[in-house]
Every structure is written in C-alpha cells, then in structure tokens.
Design goal:
binds copper (II) ion, 5 helices, binds 2-acetamido-2-deoxy-beta-D-glucopyranose, 3 domains, Immunoglobulin-like, 6-stranded mixed β-sheet, mainly beta
C-alpha cells in the first residue's frame, strides 16, 4: 500500500470533477491547444485463435492508440517508420481545410513515408466534434494499423443529449491468420478474389465464439442505472457489420461525427469507415445474467465472405463492487440473416441530421455540377501468357463509371500544386456512365473496365450532386463510398436505377443525414450533395479494401477560390518525396 493522504474537502472534489468532466479523458481539459502525438510504426508478434503472427502496428499497440482532442485543437502527429513497408496515416473524416497535405492517402495527397523516414501530420480540427478513426492508407496496412480518433466538444455542457456517465470506445476489426499484404498481393497476381478474414474483432479481440479464443474476449463492465456513450467504429477491411447487445436497446445520437435526431434501435449497421455513437442505458438493477455483444456481416456479395460472428460480453457490476461469478448465463441476441437487405434499408432510412441554431445544416438547394457515377465490379482481360483466376479466366476489377483507377507513382496533390500533371493524372474523368445500360437489370456481356489515373475538376464553392449507382455486374453489393476532405448530405436513396425525373422530387433538403461514408444500397442508388469549399485533391472510393485495390476509386480536384483564405496552403517542408 502507498502512503495515505488526508481526504480532499468535498467542495474541492466537486470543483475538480466540474473541470475534468470527461472523466474518461481527463488529459484533455482545454481546447484550442496543440497536442503532440508520436506514432512509431513497428512490427510486433500478436497471438489470436492460437496463431502468432508478426504485424505492423503503431507503438506496438493493437488496435492502435486513441488520438483524443477537442474541437479547435491543433494536432502534430510525428510518424516514424521503423518497418520495411511504406506507410501513410489517414485521419478519416477530418476535413483538413485547405490542407490536403495532412490527409494521407498514398500517391493521392502524399508520397508514402519510406523505411527510416519521418513525417509530421500537422492539422487543425475545425468545426467538427465526435467519433472518427485514423488508419493506414497504403495497400492493406490498415488491417492492423488503425485506432480511434475522438474529438470532444469545446464546452463541457455541449452534448445535445444527457451527459453520459462514462464513454467507451468499441472499434470493430478483422483478423487474418496470415499476412494481409500477402493476401492482396496474391489476389492481384492471380486475378482471383483474396482470401477472406478468419475472424472479426472487438477492440482487437475475437471472443468466445471462435476456437481457442475465449481468453481474448472484450468485456464491457457496467454499473446498473447509468447511461454509457458507446463510440462504435467499423475498422474492418471488407465488411459491413450488424451490431447488437442482447436485451438492451441503443439510442443512436451521432453518425460520422455529426449529431443525428436520436432514435432507438436494437440493431446497428455500420460500414467500414463509418462511426456511430449510441447511448446505452443499463438496467436499474444488476440482472442475474450477462449479455453477448455481437457483430456479424451484412452482405449480398456472390463471392466468399467471412460470415463468422465476433462476441464481447456486457456484464454488470454489483453493489458489492465485484463482478458476479462466471457461471451466470450469457444471453444471446438474434441477428438478421447475412443478406437482410430490407433490414439494412429500414435502418438507413431512420437517420436525420440534428438541425438547430447551434448545429445549422447547409444543404445545397440548387446544384451547379451534377455527376452520375456507377460503382461496381468488372473484369480486365488476362495477359496472353497467363492464367487468371477471376470470372471466366479474367482478372477481377472494380470501377467508377467503368474506369478502374490506377495509382500513379507520384502524388497527385504535389503534381497539381507544382503544375506537373504530365504522366501523373488526366482530368477527363467521365461525368456520366460512358455506356448506359440497365444498371440493375441483366448485366452487359462485356464487363471489361478502362484503366487510368483520371480525376474530375470542380470550381471552388460549386454546389455538387453525385448520384452513386450500384451495378449488377458480378452481383449487387452495398459499396461504402467514402469522400475525403468533405462531409456530404445524403439527400436521397432507393432501389433500382436512379430516375432523374421523379427521384429528386422526394429528396430531403431539410434534415438529411451528414456523413463522410455512405453505404450505397445493394441494387440501388444514393444521391449526395455538398459545397466544394475545400480546395485540393480529394480521393473518393469504396471503403472495402478489396474494391479499392481493384480500382473502385477516383479523385476530385477542387480549384482554389479567388480570396487568399480560399487557396490550398503550401506543402510542409518535410513532405515525403517519390
Ligand atoms: C516474432 O516472432 C518471431 C518468430 O517466432 C521472432 O523471430 C521475432 O523475433 C519476434 N519478433 C518480435 C518483435 O518479438
Ligand atoms: C534503416 O535504418 C537501419 C538502422 O540504421 C539500417 O540498418 C537499415 O539499413 C535502414 N533501412 C533502409 C531501407 O534505409
Ligand atoms: C504546422 O503548420 C502551421 C501552419 O500551417 C505552421 O505554422 C507550423 O510551423 C507547423 N508546425 C510544424 C511542427 O510543422
Ligand atoms: C489463401 O488461401 C489458400 C487456400 O486456403 C491458401 O493456399 C493460400 O496460401 C492463402 N494465401 C495466403 C496469402 O494466405
Ligand atoms: C473448432 O474446432 C473444432 C474441432 O477441432 C472444429 O470441428 C470446428 O470446425 C472449429 N470451428 C471453427 C469455427 O473453426
Ligand atoms: C458461412 O459460410 C460457410 C461457407 O460458405 C457455410 O457453410 C455456413 O453455413 C455459413 N454460415 C452462416 C452462419 O451463414
Ligand atoms: C438470403 O439467402 C437465403 C439463403 O441463401 C436465401 O434463401 C434468400 O432468398 C436470400 N434473401 C434475399 C433477400 O436475398
Ligand atoms: C508475359 O508477357 C509479358 C509481355 O507480353 C511480359 O512482360 C511478362 O513478363 C510475361 N509474363 C510471364 C509470366 O511470362
Ligand atoms: C462467362 O462466360 C459464360 C459463357 O461464355 C457467360 O454466360 C457468362 O455470362 C460469363 N460470365 C462473366 C462474369 O463474364
Ligand atoms: C431493368 O431491369 C430490371 C430487372 O430485370 C427491370 O425490373 C427493370 O424494369 C429494368 N429497367 C429498365 C429501365 O429497363
Ligand atoms: C453480347 O451482347 C451483344 C449485344 O447485346 C450481342 O450482340 C453479342 O452477341 C453478345 N456476345 C456474346 C458473346 O454473348
Ligand atoms: C515505397 O515507396 C517508394 C516511393 O514511392 C517506392 O519507390 C517503393 O517501391 C515503395 N516500396 C514498397 C515496398 O512498396
Ligand atoms: Cu465496394
């Protein structure tokens, strides 16, 4: 036992608590300050499912360390690469106003940080608060290099919902028994689909429903009669996940770091790259049971998927300050079928942005630039001297408007800034599908994609509408499309082909949900709108890494405005070179 101190006077305790109200994050009392983080990229050995493997991590932690800041803070994250792989870090959902240099996607906004090199991500969090995530943005490194990014509000009292007793982060991921880089490299070489993961994880732990895994179970220990804020993040590589807790309903209060009109649900659906904050009200009296926390995919893919279930356990602390015996029964909640598209659609339709004087919405009512993009799979021909394991002896590919994006060998943002686009990118990204067909009917018999590093250019502050249309080529899927540098409003969505005459009549231009990643309905479409007020080069892509690797991506160039504060900032001096 340590030395004993005289107890603090009660008023002092109250005063301290008032100052450090976010009891989970006492280190972030002030706002508007500079916070320093150091990310050492190192390999460690990690054991799950009775297999030990070497994995790339930040600071030897899996999942990676939480980055916690307040709205208005400056972040300086020094990344030092000690591994043989290249690396970059993306601050997923951070707007990076005029500052694409800190956004992170390799060969889009920066060259990768090579072995033994260092780069400082230098950015300010402006006008945003909520749960986001950070992750590697180089090949499939984000399978192990990811963590929470938590932006607390500036003022203690400013949550638009009752102050939670505690805050808890739940980050969902995917575990591969072998090296994820080897898996995608093998797939790109053979043309076939990559091996699927062996487990899902909650905070890095697969839980008791897998063999040899019971000791690696996440436990959420709660007190009765309290409200907990769960910050749920999907950092999985390739899977939308249903999430549920037995016998407890959840109140959704935030999505992708914007507040939503609260609604109650038994079940969440969360795409890779999405975040959902929910309130969990615990039962008034500790029950004589424990409760499974489960996550399992939603998918309509025709290919193989990892259809396993990760489990954590919610357990109650009793008044005697101990957790009850392990023999308590564990209650298992139901989960919808893996292909439950109607459940997915009902859930998505419930989101409305919270709109009030403090959080006004700025939904474009008129549109300057319209785009119609198909998103889906395709193929590319097999080289003559090869055998390919994709559909009908081809290579799997994926595309936006039938163009499969090719990563250049130099970064687009630098090339743009220094006016050296030659050989890096072209500005001819198609605004509409080059060959229209019935996108949700019988697919065309030729499924070959075009290839190129094509970008679309938009003027500063244009109001933009993009309709994202899923295609039937090689099967419908719910593609989670993520836009860098922006949030957007989801003004409409539906099944079948988008109808430009009738569908806009049903748009919600009042309180549509504001996201950075939209799950485009499987066999349907989604319409998004935003003002192009952030100059730079911004990637837009499917957040399934397999589709990203196959080319389901494109980039925007948003031009500078006329005024000085409407221009892209100059690059930092330590920007990596390639
Ligand atoms: C990981 O395990 C391998 C093989 O068992 C061993 O050679 C290596 O030193 C270990 N690495 C670390 C960082 O512990
Ligand atoms: C990185 O640094 C280590 C230690 O100085 C050195 O052994 C290694 O060769 C370097 N690797 C590269 C690729 O520069
Ligand atoms: C971060 O960026 C700001 C402004 O863009 C600059 O003034 C500052 O020197 C930078 N800090 C570091 C450590 O690079
Ligand atoms: C993928 O799975 C196949 C079949 O199980 C196996 O032979 C192959 O080694 C796996 N590839 C990697 C990179 O793990
Ligand atoms: C667990 O192990 C048993 C026995 O070895 C095996 O039959 C079963 O398929 C395994 N289950 C999983 C999910 O791997
Ligand atoms: C998961 O997929 C395997 C292999 O395709 C199949 O045998 C099994 O029935 C599926 N399990 C569930 C729960 O859908
Ligand atoms: C979901 O899958 C089951 C089993 O494969 C199938 O019977 C059912 O028709 C599918 N449902 C939908 C909505 O596609
Ligand atoms: C296949 O042919 C191409 C040229 O057409 C050549 O570059 C490549 O090395 C060949 N690959 C194999 C596996 O022979
Ligand atoms: C594969 O070829 C068969 C027969 O030529 C055709 O019916 C089928 O549509 C093709 N599938 C794909 C995915 O191209
Ligand atoms: C597209 O195909 C679907 C499914 O076959 C069909 O229901 C729909 O009427 C077709 N749409 C058009 C415009 O042809
Ligand atoms: C592909 O479709 C076109 C037009 O729909 C048709 O003319 C052509 O014969 C078809 N090719 C094959 C291989 O089925
Ligand atoms: C790392 O990045 C450099 C610069 O783009 C590139 O030349 C090199 O091939 C990359 N290394 C790996 C292993 O991808
Ligand atoms: Cu996709």
């Amino acid at each position: 036992m340590g030395a004993s101190y005289p107890p603090l006077p009660a008023f002092l305790v109250a005063l301290l608590l008032a100052f450090f109200c976010f009891c989970d994050f006492p280190q972030v009392a002030n706002a508007g300050i500079t916070r320093h983080y150091k990310f050492d990229i190192v390999s460690i050995n990690v054991t799950r499912l009775c297999r030990t493997k070497s994995m790339v991590t930040v600071n030897g932690q899996f999942p990676g360390p939480p980055v916690v800041a307040r709205e208005g803070d400056h972040l300086l994250v020094k990344v030092v690469n000690h591994v043989s792989s290249n690396v970059t870090i993306h601050w997923h959902g951070v707007r990076q106003l005029r500052n694409g240099w800190a956004d992170g996607p390799a060969y889009i906004t920066q060259c990768p940080i090579q072995t033994n090199n260092t780069y400082v991500y230098n950015f300010t969090i402006t006008g945003q608060r909520g749960t986001l995530l950070w992750h590697a943005h180089f090949q499939w490194l984000r399978a192990t290099v990811y963590g929470p990014l938590i932006i607390l509000p500036q003022l203690i009292a400013s949550y638009p919902f009752p102050k939670p007793y505690k805050e808890v982060t739940i980050i969902l991921g995917e575990w591969y028994n072998t090296d994820p880089e080897a898996i995608i490299n093998q797939a790109l070489q053979t043309g076939g689909a990559p091996n699927v993961s062996n487990a899902y994880t909650i905070n890095g732990l697969p839980g008791p429903l897998y063999n040899c895994s019971a000791k690696d179970t996440y436990r959420l220990r709660v007190k009765p009669g309290k409200t907990y804020l769960l910050r749920v993040i999907n950092a999985a590589l390739d899977d939308d996940l249903f999430f549920t807790i037995a016998n407890h309903s959840l109140t959704v209060v935030e999505a992708d770091a914007t507040y939503v009109k609260p609604f109650e649900t038994e079940l969440l659906l969360i795409s890779p790259g999405q975040t959902t904050n929910v309130l969990l009200k615990t039962k008034p009296i500790a029950p004589n049971a424990k409760f499974f926390i489960l996550a399992r995919p939603y998918s309509t893919s025709q290919g193989a998927i990892d259809n396993t279930t990760v489990a954590g356990i919610l357990e109650y602390k009793t008044s005697s300050n101990a957790f009850k015996s392990k023999r308590l029964p564990v209650i298992r909640p139901p989960l919808p079928p893996i292909n439950a598209t109607s459940v997915a659609a009902n859930y998505s339709s419930r989101f409305r942005r919270l709109v009030n004087a403090q959080f006004p919405a700025n939904v474009p009512q008129k549109v300057d630039k319209k785009f119609y993009f198909t998103v889906g799979l395709g193929t590319s021909p097999c080289a003559k001297n090869q055998t390919c394991q994709g559909p009908n002896g081809t290579n799997f590919a994926a595309s936006v408007n039938n163009n499969s994006f090719v990563l250049p060998s130099r970064a687009i943002l630098q090339s743009y800034y220094f006016k050296k686009s030659n050989g890096v990118y072209t500005t001819n990204f198609p605004r509409f599908p080059p060959k229209p067909f019935n996108y949700t009917g019988t697919p065309p018999n030729i499924t070959f994609v075009t290839k190129g590093s094509k970008v679309a250019v938009i003027p500063f502050n244009a109001s933009v509408e993009i309709v994202l249309q899923d295609t039937s080529i090689l099967g419908f899927e719910r593609h989670p499309i993520h836009l860098h540098g922006y949030n957007f409003y989801v003004v409409g969505q539906g099944f079948g082909n988008f109808d430009p005459k009738n569908d806009p009549k049903n748009y919600n231009l009042v309180d549509p949900v504001e996201l950075n990643t939209i799950g485009v309905p499987s066999g349907g479409w989604a319409a998004i709108r935003f003002f192009a007020d952030n100059p730079g080069v911004w990637l837009m892509h499917c957040h399934f890494d397999v589709h990203l690797s196959w080319g389901l991506t494109m980039a925007w160039i948003v031009r500078d405005g006329k005024l000085p504060h409407q221009k892209l900032l100059p690059p930092p001096s330590d920007l990596p070179k390639c």
